[in-house]
Specification:
The complex is a heterodimer of chains A (303) and B (305). Chain A has 303 residues and is mainly alpha-helical. Chain A has helices at 2-12, 15-27, 38-64, 67-70, 85-94, 96-128, 131-142, 145-158, 166-190, 194-201, 206-217, 219-235, 238-243, 251-261, 266-286, 288-296. In chain A, helix 6 runs parallel beside helix 9 (166-190). The longest helix of chain A has 33 residues, at 96-128. Chain B is mostly helical and 305 residues long. Chain B has 12 helices and 2 strands. In chain B, a hairpin with a 5-residue loop joins strand 1 and strand 2 (62-64). Classes of the chains: A mainly alpha (303), B mainly alpha (305). At the A-B interface, helix 1, helix 2, helix 3, helix 6 and helix 7 of A face helix 1, helix 3, helix 4, helix 5 and helix 7 of B.
Chain lengths: 303, 305
């Protein structure tokens, strides 16, 4: 980001070119964007997005077909008539409601705690320019999820916490706290300091300046951190598969168990997969601007 | 600097201005998060180091074995094969998404109808729950009833055995990884392209450069720092890949897709050999840091620092 700004500086001062450019701008301001011609561009975009379209279409198709159509060859693409039997099956046979509630509890708690801890932390780090703290967060991003799990698994065993949701919430903090802190550092660094300084001069203490000035200004950033940490906590599988007991499974773990025990029936399997991922896909559709902004800010990804 | 002058009877209270006076107190904001980080990130690291020099089974006694686990590790062919497979998988699962991701970023940087919709569809694979998509891929890979072999037959190609064959399993997993994580590369590089200056392109147009030349000699050098960041992220994620491999093959057939992460899971939570698994974690972590370090050096080197 700063590198690109520096590069931009290099090119800003070339008088001979700028003169010619001024003439060019008058003719066609966006001509430089035409280096891909239109037809090629549309063809490229179609090639790029078709794997995603085909995949999600096939997922939906599998979940809406009866078993005979799902195992037919050649495959049936459009379900006729579509059936919701697979979805009913999933909820009736597998106690998916309990697992759904578990997932909601874990993801909401992990996200809420991450905001409580991470927003002030991002503020503190941004204010003190503590780059070392930021590096620590990057290292957390680099570490494989499994390596946290071995010692934490032992610890939870000693504390007799393995049958509860608490270990899941705590381990999910490994994902959510770095995401929130990382996004908030960037956001607080970009905020103008004038308002906070004015508040301090007027007699606020730094906590009040944070609470009543900086936090309201940073609301869009908090939103981005919240959405991303929720999604990556919801999607997490590895912590659940090790730490969850029979009644404390989260949805991804529950879906994986459907695979291992009922390998043959494709319809319910696809329906279960769709149920798990639907909330996240919906969130992506509704909040795509925030998600893109957050992901571009530093390639955040959990786990 | 300080207000403690001996001659003054009462030092006048200096109003705190600027950041300096507050620096220490701002640390208080980071304290709660720091405590959590110590508990769930730093403590596990240190504890892993301790465990790695012990023979530590879940049930049973703990014996100190010094570097025994490490010595064993470097003579364990299963581990060494896992390292080789991980590097093979990582190389392919970095190159493919980087090439497609940069191409996609160039496309999505242009203005066209439905760009927003197309971009949302394009990033869906990376937002979707990995376990869920892994399940659907598994069904698509089915040798007789899978839709992929049907599509191949439509194109007049012979059926593939996808993840059911030891030579095609890793390329197939790379394909899934590419499908899933190319969007992240695209987003990071797109962020870079969006911040580019207009001038060099205009100059190039005047000089009669064609599209490929502008891409090769303007876009790529200017966006290079972003490309390196994207590559670093991709390398880290490919080394750490777990969910899709675990669900689709669980290391199989045989051990032909057993990466370090798969073997690690098996050792720790299949055999409950926690000491040995911890040594593996330490070596794995060093490997990741080495690769990341080399990449960050490359980034500096490109800037001539």
């Amino acid at each position: 980001m700063t590198a690109a700004a520096a590069v931009r500086g290099d090119h800003a001062t070339k008088p001979a070119v700028t003169l010619a450019v001024a003439q060019l701008r008058a003719v066609n301001p966006y001509r430089y964007r035409r280096y891909l011609n239109r037809a090629g561009l549309y063809a490229s975009v179609i090639i790029l997005i078709s794997p995603a379209i085909l995949f999600f279409f096939w997922m939906l198709s599998l979940s809406l077909k009866n078993e005979a159509d799902n195992t037919a060859y050649p495959p049936v693409f459009i379900p006729h008539p579509p059936t919701l039997a697979n979805f009913i099956d999933v909820f009736a046979k597998n106690d998916f409601l309990t697992y759904g509630i578990n997932s909601v509890i874990v993801s909401f708690s992990a996200t809420g705690l991450a905001l409580l801890l991470g927003v002030p932390a991002g503020y503190g780090i941004a204010k003190t320019n503590a780059t070392k703290a930021a590096v620590l967060i990057l290292i957390a991003r680099v570490t494989p999820g499994l390596s946290f799990l071995i010692p934490l698994f032992l610890m939870f065993q000693w504390l007799h916490m393995l049958g509860t949701l608490t270990p899941l919430v705590i381990t999910h903090l490994v994902i959510t706290v770095p995401i929130v802190v990382w996004i908030m550092i960037g956001y607080f660094e970009g905020l103008p300091v004038d308002l906070e300084e004015a508040a301090l001069v007027d007699g606020c203490n730094i906590w009040q300046a944070f609470r009543y000035v900086a936090v309201p200004l940073a609301r869009p950033g908090i939103m981005v951190g919240m959405i991303l940490s929720f999604i990556f906590s919801w999607n997490n599988f590895i912590f659940g598969v090790v730490l969850a007991g029979r009644t404390t499974r989260t949805l991804p773990v529950a879906v994986y168990n459907v695979l291992t025990f009922e390998q043959i029936s494709w319809g319910p399997l696809a329906a279960a997969a769709l149920v798990v991922t639907a909330p996240v896909l919906l969130l992506t559709l509704l909040m795509q601007k925030e998600i893109v902004a957050g992901l571009t800010a530093g390639g955040v990804k959990g786990g | 600097m300080s207000a403690t002058t001996a001659g003054m009877p009462v030092a006048p209270r200096v109003r705190p201005t600027g950041k300096r006076n507050y620096a220490r107190r701002y640390w208080l904001f980071a304290m709660p998060a720091a405590m959590v980080v110590v508990a769930v990130i730093l403590f596990p690291w240190l504890f892993t180091l301790v465990m790695s020099v012990n023979d530590w089974k879940v049930s049973g006694n703990v014996y100190f074995v010094g570097l025994g686990n490490y010595q064993h590790l470097f003579r364990d062919p299963r581990f060494l094969w896992a390292v080789a497979r991980t590097l093979y998988f990582t190389t392919a699962a970095v190159i493919a998404p980087m090439l497609i991701g940069v191409w996609a970023a160039v496309c999505f940087a242009s203005n066209f109808k439905f760009r927003g919709v197309a971009r949302t569809i394009f990033i869906m694979p990376m937002m979707a729950t990995p376990v869920a998509i892994a399940l659907v891929w598994t069904m698509m890979f089915h040798p007789q009833l899978g839709v992929l072999n049907y599509l191949l037959s439509l194109a007049g190609l012979p059926p593939l055995s996808w993840v059911y064959n030891s030579t095609t399993v890793i390329p197939t997993l790379v394909m899934v990884e590419t499908w899933q994580w190319t969007p992240l590369v695209m987003l990071i590089v797109l962020g870079g392209i969006a911040s580019l200056p207009i001038d060099p392109y205009e100059a190039a147009v005047i000089d009669g450069a064609n599209g490929w030349q502008m891409f090769r000699y303007i876009t790529v050098p200017l966006v290079w720092p972003f490309i390196v960041v994207a590559a670093a992220m991709r390398i880290i994620d490919a080394l750490k890949a777990f969910d899709t491999i675990f669900v689709i093959t669980n290391g199989g057939p045989g051990t032909s897709s057993e990466t370090i992460n798969m073997l690690l899971y098996q050792t720790a939570f299949g055999y409950y050999d926690l000491g040995y698994a911890s040594a593996m974690v330490v070596v794995f972590f060093v490997l990741i840091l080495l690769v990341t370090g080399v990449l960050l050096r490359m980034r500096r080197w490109e800037h001539g620092i």
